[in-house]
Design a protein that fits this description.
The chain is mainly alpha-helical. The protein is built from 3 helices and no strands. It comes from Macrostomum lignano.
Length: about 90
């Protein structure tokens, strides 16, 4: 393979979407923490907010990861069907 043959327009990871998402999440976290720090009464309840966010994040992660095997199986079955269909069609010509 000739390494000069393939010219990439970007460097790959992290993508623009990942960079933008990371920036927005970091900005919002710092914004909320600074607001909570100014209000001492809200700072006392900070652990409740953190616990709630962690539980929501863990729940979302579990829900997302439980669908991955189903998606992989779905793709495998349909790719296999398409492959056999193409082989049959190629053989009949």
């Amino acid at each position: 393979m000739d390494p000069g043959r393939y010219k990439l327009s970007s460097y790959g990871m992290p993508s623009d979407h990942a960079q933008a998402t990371s920036f927005i999440v970091t900005y919002l976290c710092l914004f909320v923490l600074l607001r909570l720090y100014r209000n001492a009464s809200l700072l006392e309840d900070l652990w409740k907010y953190i616990l709630c966010c962690c539980l929501v994040g863990i729940g979302g992660g579990v829900a997302f990861s439980s669908t991955i095997p189903n998606v992989l199986y779905f793709e495998y079955v349909h790719i296999k069907k398409e492959s056999t269909h193409r082989q049959r069609r190629k053989g009949s010509c």
